[in-house]
């Protein structure tokens, strides 16, 4: 839940989502919720059989073979890799702006990004349990404040009274494409729930707890997102739908209108960004660690400390995030960097979601044919893949502004580079290819006899 960054998602994604869906923003979020629930089913079916830190990389290796698994992991690397620079740019500029507005203290956003980056690095170096507890505290704070503002808006009847207008597709500013744009940013709000699957090797009873965590995260935060979207739309009113779509800080406007101040919201967003950064880094680092351990990335990234922390992968990722955001910051506004990195993350993850939905069909047919169920392992995954095509369409129609319009081309170039690297690995040695997708399927039926024999 913390990796989803609820308050960050609501604060930053409402504007670009509303720019497409307008007053029908809540409907787009409902569509995103349905798609992610269907996706949770796909991930759960994999997690029950493959508890691993490799996530989509390992899942699609078992579904599509070594080449398909590698390319999925390669795209996952790009998508998750954007998390650190995205959040560093956001938390840096928000904290810098808060200090200036409230205390007249001027600290460059780059310096604040460096400070928060160092703090998150230290927390994650202490272990997953400690970082999860930290993220949980901030998660409770951020959700509580946003719900308080939504409750105030609905209690006042919004701007023009309560209605079901926000769930009417006819109220989308740009028709089906507008709903697709809203859904794209809605799915971006959910991105992170699947990261629980990356902790499959560290969780207790992962085949039971991972699926429970998946569905709980999607349902609880999904309801929160729908309520927030409805509160925002109602807070502006249907007759002000264009103003809602054009407002670059809609929640600041709502907080000022209904609470008379926005500083509490800014602090909440900062708490959300921090929790998002802490828990998100855990997931990213464990994917990098898994690929390093299997020799796809440099093997040094697959090393752990005496406390079993993937410290080399953590350090490499944090340094990459800081350098990346500072280089882009020399040319772009930090909030533009946030939108740019977020779009890469969102589009890349949607493609991965589609691939995983198709992969689970082949996985059960090939490796667990006796457990294959046409509804759970075929119909639902196909519906998921089809539904995920809507936000892909929303990314190209209408064409987004610079630099977000470059994102599809960046993804294509990245995948071409990954294909070339895959060909290189195949020529270098068969052992590296066979190492892909190695997981620990430690079912009780197989572990006990093995241990007894030894």
From TrEMBL:
Position of the signal peptide:
none
Biological process, per Gene Ontology: transmembrane transport
Question: Gene Ontology terms, cellular component aspect?
Answer: membrane
Q: How does it sit in the membrane?
A: Multi-pass membrane protein
Q: Where is the Amino acid permease/ SLC12A domain?
A: 14-365
Where is the chain membrane-spanning? Answer: 20-40, 74-95, 107-123, 135-156, 176-200, 212-238, 258-289, 309-331, 337-365, 377-394, 406-424
Q: Spell out the Gene3D superfamilies in the cross-references.
A: Amino acid/polyamine transporter I (1.20.1740.10)
Keywords attached to this Swiss-Prot or TrEMBL record, sorted alphabetically, are: Membrane, Transmembrane, Transmembrane helix
**In which domain of life is the source organism classified?**
Bacteria
Where does this polypeptide localize? Membrane
Q: What is the protein named?
A: APC family permease
Tell me the organism.
Leifsonia tongyongensis
Q: Highest lineage ranks of the organism?
A: Bacteria, Bacillati, Actinomycetota, Actinomycetes, Micrococcales
